[in-house]
User: Fold S-methyl-5'-thioadenosine phosphorylase from Acidocella aminolytica 101 = DSM 11237.
Amino acid sequence: MGETKQPVIGIIGGSGLYNIDGLKNTEWVKVETPWGDPSDELLTGEYEGQKVVFLPRHGRGHKTSPTALNYRANIDALKRLGVTDILSLSAVGSLKEELPPGHFVIVDQFIDRSFAREKSFFGPGCVAHVSMAHPVCVRLGDALEESLKTLELPHTRGGTYLVMEGPQFSTLAESNLYRSWGCSVIGMTNMPEAKLAREAEIDYATVAMVTDYDCWHEDHDAVTVDQVVKVLLGNADKARNLVKEVLPRLSAPRPACAHGCDTSLTYALITSPEARDPAVLAKLDAVAGRVLNAS
Ligand SMILES: CSC[C@H]1O[C@H](OP(=O)(O)O)[C@H](O)[C@@H]1O
Ligand SMILES: Nc1ncnc2[nH]cnc12
Assistant:
């Protein structure tokens, strides 16, 4: 086995998950980034010796909407605190009969229909193209699946998460369109989050927690926030138990991801070194430092 690194696990808590318990030596840390402010301070701590960084995606008190989230600042801040692996916890609507409220889905694909968000750290002055063919980390998915099995929580491995812009929920025609595309769940936040994690060479996986049947199901009312919150409150302890179950499975020093999640920039930069803008490179110090400092 080649070089190994000690993982630092980042947890992004979605709707209903604004804190996690059971960590030792905790501190809420304010992190400045070249992309602006993250959603909130980040909670650093340890669980059974494993370093953990928690970020409430919408901020404590749920202050920021999916469109207004500063996804770049969130991922950059996690990278600056040394995070190597991100577990994203998200509330979603179900687009399939067999995925009822209370069910957990370990997502393996996304369709990105968001349109009003900054989606890349790269651009004029330093252009890069990373692969998103396989957007989530298989190793993290394995650990999540084992943990859900151990906890005997109802779950499905694999499924496509449709990312809508929001903040309004879908129309019936949209919901049915996404169903006809074979999508499993719908939410508003996991893109560009997963794209930016890939650009920042951080392994990423999502556990989607089903809260509703969106608006397509004839036997269920169209989704409302109070319905989502009700299911989430019932799910929050399960999500926290899942975190405690999964962390020890991820704590051993590990080699670089066999599928390239954390070496995604090795062949991604296309702007020649002499054409790169130094001001842009300065902003990329955290997310692309590994490759920029090598060339
Ligand atoms: C409160 S329902 C809509 C809201 O919940 C999901 O957020 P998250 O992924 O952070 O759990 C969904 O994407 C919407 O942002
Ligand atoms: N039906 C739904 N649509 C979009 N985001 C959601 N988050 C939870 N339920 C949702």
About this structure: The helical segments are 71-80, 138-150, 172-180, 190-199, 225-246, 278-283, 289-292. The longest strand covers residues 85-94.
